Amino acid sequence: MPICCSLAMRKGSCLPPLPIRRWRDLTRTRAKIRRTMAGFANRMQKLWEDANLKLGSVASDVLGVSGRGMLTALIAGPYDPKQLAQMGCGRFREKTKKLELA
Predict the structure, then answer these.
(1) Cβ-count burial of 82 within 10 angstroms (0-12 exposed, 13-18 middle, 19+ buried)?
(2) 60 domain-assigned
(3) Given its phi and psi angles, is residue 20 left (phi above 0), alpha (psi -120 to 50 degrees) or beta?
């Protein structure tokens, strides 16, 4: 049997319209970026725990506004745990004692 006859018997594949294909590409790219960011956050948190900084035990989002401010202060130079705990914003204000220990 010739090849062209066997191909003619197969059903064609469904190719979605261009806007749907672009939307799928966009959502796949967004998911890939979010996975990359989550991996980065996990690596950062592991580095901080290796340095005996347990910010993750107090904060659910260590890369939030309060966490980033504290990390910037840590990188800048000598630090005092009480001063770092005072840098917390919003709900972190309620956890200053835990932050000092972390």
Answers:
(1) exposed
(2) yes
(3) alpha
Task: Give me the amino acid identity at 96.
Answer: T
Instruction: Compute how many other C-beta atoms are within 10 angstroms of the C-beta atom of residue 74.
Output: 15
Q: Give the pLDDT of residue 52.
A: 79
Taking the chain (102 residues) in runs of 10, the rounded mean pLDDT of each run is 57 86 96 94 85 75 77 77 71 65 62
Residue with tokens 């967004």: 30
Which residue range is the domain that position 87 belongs to? 19-101
- Which tokens is 98 given? 């835990």
The answer to whether residue 66 is domain-embedded is yes
Count of beta carbons in the 10 Å neighbourhood of residue 4: 7
